[in-house]
Amino acid sequence: MGSVLAHGQISTPLACQEELHEGPEFTQAFANPKDDSVLPRVLLIGDSISIGYTVNVRKLLTGKAKVHRIPGNGQTADFGVKNLPKWLGDKKWDVIHFNWGLWDLAYRHPDSKSQGKRDKVNGTVSNTPEQYREHLEQAVAILKKTGAKLIWCATTPVPEGEAGRHAGDAIRYNKVAADVMKKNGIAINDLHSHALKRLPGIATRPGDVHFNKEGCDWLAEKVAAEILQALPTQQK
């Protein structure tokens, strides 16, 4: 059993606290707005990459939508399936922008000294592509019941030198996700290609999947634009 974290989430056994929320944007990202009886409700689901762009997406959609995010890190797709009922709650969502992937394709080993016990040499992958597909299909089935406009967000690139992830695996897992989304008629936000336009300059450091402030803002622009297109006509 993993340890209990802030917001009542359970971490994966080999993950570490630092992976679950990084940087000064944490507090603001989780400060969800008060609901507005007029503006549409938007939900962001994702890992620390989404935490990084949450605040600026809210700013870009000011007056257009109330942008919420899940109360923590979305971690793996199977973690998402278990937590979706709680995250979705009982209120209506107009748009849900969601992603899993970087945690699914991560290799971890209990003896690793790297952050999050990452070890792509001796570790075990969190979810194989086949398991990833299965969990995504389960998650999509749950999300479709909300009646919200769904937007799948492609997983951002894995750089060379990442301790627990193989460069290129994001492409493999994105192909699996794209197949699931196309089969279900779900829109795809290709954030992977968008990030590549500015990498490596927008990475926090070499070998790190995270983005600096410029990078987070760059991703937020694409996310906000995709959500704006999905909003009810009167809000665009």
Can you summarize this structure?
This protein is α/β, with parallel strands linked by helices and 236 residues long.
Key phrases:
Rossmann fold; five-stranded parallel β-sheet; two-stranded antiparallel ribbon; alpha/beta; disordered N terminus; globular; 8 helices; single chain; 236 residues
Tell me the number of structural domains.
1
Unreliable segments of 5+ consecutive residues: 1-21
CATH class value:
Alpha Beta
Major sheet: size, sense and barrel closure?
5 strands, parallel
Spatial order of the strands forming the largest sheet: 2-1-3-6-7
Describe this structure in words.
The chain has 236 residues and is of the alpha/beta class. Helix content is 37%, strand content 11%. The chain has one domain (24-235): Rossmann fold (3-Layer(aba) Sandwich), CATH 3.40.50.1110. The protein has helices at 17-20, 26-29, 48-60, 77-88, 129-144, 169-183, 191-196, 213-230, and strands spanning 41-45, 66-69, 95-98, 107-108, 124-125, 149-153, 187-189. The protein has a five-stranded parallel beta sheet with strand order 2-1-3-6-7, with helices on both faces. A two-stranded antiparallel ribbon has the order 4-5. Helix 6 (169-183) links the parallel strand 6 and strand 7 (187-189). It is globular, with a radius of gyration of 17 Å. The model is unreliable at 1-21 (pLDDT under 50).
Any chance you could write out the topology, listing elements then pairs?
Elements (H helix, E strand, L loop, with lengths): L16 H4 L5 H4 L11 E5 L2 H13 L5 E4 L7 H12 L6 E4 L8 E2 L15 E2 L3 H16 L4 E5 L15 H15 L3 E3 L1 H6 L16 H18 L6
Parallel strand pairs: 1-2, 1-3, 3-6, 6-7
Antiparallel strand pairs: 4-5
Helix pairs in contact: 3-8, 4-5, 5-6
